[in-house]
Amino acid sequence: MLSSTHAGEAPVRPMRHYGLDWLRIAAFGLLILYHIGMVFAPWHWVIDTQKSYPALIVPMAALSPWRLGLLFAVSGYASRMLLLRSAGRRAFVRSRNWRLLMPLAFGMAVLVPVEMYIQVVERGYQGGYWRFWTTDYWRQGPLFGVMFPSWEHLWFVVYLWAYTMVALALDRVGRLPGARTARWLLRGGRLLWAPILAIEAMRLSILFVLPERQGLFTDWPGHVVYFPLFLFGFALAAHPALWDAIARLWKPALAVAAVAGTIVVATELRYPGEAVPGHAAMLADRAARVAMAWSMTLALFHLAQRFWNRDHRWRRTLGEAVFPFYLLHHPVIVFIAWETLGLRLDPWIEFAILLAGTLAACTAFYLAARAVPWLRPLAGLGPRPPA
User: Fold this and answer.
1) What SS3 state is found at 356?
2) What's the short name of a Pfam family annotated to this entry (predicted)?
3) Is the dihedral of CA 343, 348, 349, 352 positive or negative?
4) What is the Cα 222 distance to its own chain's centre?
5) What 3-state DSSP class applies to 335?
């Protein structure tokens, strides 16, 4: 058994944390609701309603700063647990490649083209889907104002794979934060304020220098926030004493999140839609987003540890269904919205159709993937367990 600890550290016994499983399930459930909300929100998305609803600004702005950082932190913890359970580093890398890159390839070839086709058709593309998929989808560069290629929502899988490989390499050469760093963070409120200040310093130093543009080699504003949160989860799995600091600091963390969230929401209300804030307002907004991402992660980790760390007969099934749901939900939302928005339905009816249709399609995809052996790896599922 690979211990993944440094000299002088006691080996960590890999134990499943049911609370973080439930947190992951809840976070991906919120992600589906968030993406459905983006259809109606004032911000531009893949596809938008003819009328936007400013009432969505407050809840979605309050959710936006921490929802993805939380997923990276939970994924970091899960990745470290998988590493500890693996027969060795090579086995771990093979497993991660199989479970992440196979669904990525499937998604890029089958799922993402649906969204990209809808985007170019909305801008004037006259060709059919077959022509688009066989020729135009594989292009490099713009088509009707849409840039190709594009990961769309699968960028999370790309980042997660890259962060895992970098963390593994750092662990291999002993450059990951170890027991000494964990002990330092355990003192006082350091686990709350020190990471926030460090990440804010990195984030604000490149704010007006590098564009906020998605891409594995371009999204440095995203990486300086997401990768430390991933490393936090990765370190927490190997240094469980950090749970004591989380339990001690969750209330101050929640207070920080409330103040930071107020700044974020106020900025979005002051500069709605595509309006660009001034430099001072943007500095305050980006600093608040960092503070909220870190502090909400601490508070929600405590919630998972204190109240949710218990098993249930539905946990395994729901946890397994998360990745297939994630893969399919985005193109399904875009497709249903594209097919129904022209009907000019009541927004609540439209929301109900989007939610029911997305859940139905994702459930069918998961059940099919679970039953069909060759579809399992494409949907991100592991080998079929013995009967």
Assistant:
1) helix
2) Acyl_transf_3
3) positive
4) 11
5) helix
